[in-house]
Every structure is written in structure tokens, then in C-alpha cells.
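*** Residues and shapes ***
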Amino acid sequence: MNSGTTNLNGFKNSEFERGRSQFIIALWYLVNFCIFNTYLFPFYKLKSLLLILFGAKLGKGVLIKPKVNIKYPWKLRVGENVWIGENVWIDNLDFVFIGDNVCISQDALLISGNHNYKKPHFDLIAKPIVLEDGVWIGARAVVTGGVTCQSHSVLLIASVASSNLDAYSIYKGNPAVKIKDRNIE
């Protein structure tokens, strides 16, 4: 039985906490567009410095490939020796925590925001994402808000993690299901 209707005209996200002034957000969008979300700027250390200047916490050895899109650097925490591949989109409406020695492969999407389809105004829902040490997010894979990928878990290519991944486990599919253990020799 269907009931109610969606009314996007009533959508309000004024209660959503962006964490910075409109000026800083606009300045970040410009920097993100010109420096991060382009193939024309391959300088890793300067990208890390800019993220830190905008409030991100980064460890040593972070490599950010070209064409990366980051929503809010002040809601980003990255450990040491992290690789972020080409075309990765970190849509961090809530905090994204990335541990040490994490690989996020090309075209992956970390999306901490969603909408409540049960509400007529499609209310915004934002939940953090945690990638613990040694995690590998495969190419074109998606991790949704509220998910923790535990230590050394793997999300295979084009898979979708909408629930937590167990440590030292390999996941595949949409929704992602465990297919085997991860053994590091």
C-alpha cells in the first residue's frame, strides 16, 4: 500500500553543519576544482599542505593522485602511507577517518551522506565512514555512511559496502558479501 508523497520543495538542509563559513567553503571549492579535481596538478606534497591548511589531519606519505574530489577537508582524517587514486570522490558530509597504509583505488566513492526516503522532504542523513589500517577499497567501489571497514578488509572492484566489513576479510558485490579471508604472507 502506497501512502504520502515526496515534496522536494520543502527540503531544508540548514540544520546540516558544514563546519566552516560560506567564504571558506567557497574558497575550498575553488582550490578543490583548480588543484585537486584536475589532471593538471600532480604535486602530492602541495596537495597535502593545502588539505592541512583547510583543516584536514594528515599523516606522512599521503599520495593523492589527479582528479580527486574532496567535499570538506576539515572533516577528513588520514593516517600515514595512504594512497588515494585518480577520480576518487570523498563526499564527506560527516567525518571520514582513514587509517595507516590504506589504498583507495581509482573511481572509488566514499559517500557519508544520504537522504531519508521515508520523509516527504527527503531529509539529509550524514554518518561517518571509518577505513581502519591496511584497508583496500577497490576501483569503482562505494562505501556508504555509517560503515566501518575493519583492519585489512578488502572491498573488491565495483562493490558496495553498506554495512561493516570484518577485519582480514574480502568482500564482493552489491551489497558486498564476504567471499573469503584475507591472508597476508
Q: What stands out?
A: The chain has one domain: 43-181.
